[in-house]
Amino acid sequence: ETGVTQSPTHLIKTRGQQVTLRCSSQSGHNTVSWYQQALGQGPQFIFQYYREEENGRGNFPPRFSGLQFPNYSSELNVNALELDDSALYLCASSAVGVSQETQYFGPGTRLLVL
Amino acid sequence: GDSVTQMEGPVTLSEEAFLTINCTYTATGYPSLFWYVQYPGEGLQLLLKATKADDKGSNKGFEATYRKETTSFHLEKGSVQVSDSAVYFCALSVGTGNQFYFGTGTSLTVIP
Questions:
Q1: Beta-carbon neighbour count of residue B39 at 10 Å?
Q2: Disulfide: which of A29, A68, A80, B33 matches A49 by Cβ 3.0-4.6 Å?
Q3: Tell me, what's the pLDDT at A7?
Q4: Per-residue confidence (pLDDT) for residue A97, from 0 to 100
Q5: Closest residue, chain B, to A36 (C-alpha)
Q6: Which one has a higher pLDDT value, B21 or A27?
Q7: CA atoms within a 13 Å half-sphere pointing along the CA-CB vector of A82
Q8: Residues of B with CB below 8 A from A3's CB?
Q9: Contact call for residues A99 and B31 (beta carbons, < 8 A)
């Protein structure tokens, strides 16, 4: 059984650019959630995807968008990058149809916006 | 709204000392409660969880009891080791959306 994987591990962008982060969920999981973790803070929920549809969203602007694919992998896209978008972006997967189920996290992608 | 409040750190303990990290929550429904641990440069790993009142989660010598009357889920370990040095996050999940709310994290350093 493979765990949650994310790519790339690190990324440097400049303000105004766009970025795409990728996540492969753990085997048997079809729900993916994305979190932003600023330095010294806890993860903040961005959104969740279930069966390729957005299934809940946190307090993030529309320039944060996502996709989920038929194989349950997922992308997080951020447009018009701002300096405050610099953070660790975490992807987590969980089992189908089970609320309050444990989420399993990937190692994260560290994004630096200059 | 739903939220978690954690004891602020950093916490520094000597090896074999007793550890308590306080966590209280606010939730509109009946949450599940979790402790996650983050080692330097890594993602979050589940440490333990409890899904209903009075449940005790335990793993690797760590324990936490779901206390509905005090809305708390304090993390404890009787004898910490250097390898326990990490950041610990309390979290809750409530409702059908399985959205997690995390505390701000407590950094623990254990010295030999």
A1: 13
A2: A68
A3: 96
A4: 56
A5: B102
A6: B21
A7: 6
A8: none
A9: no
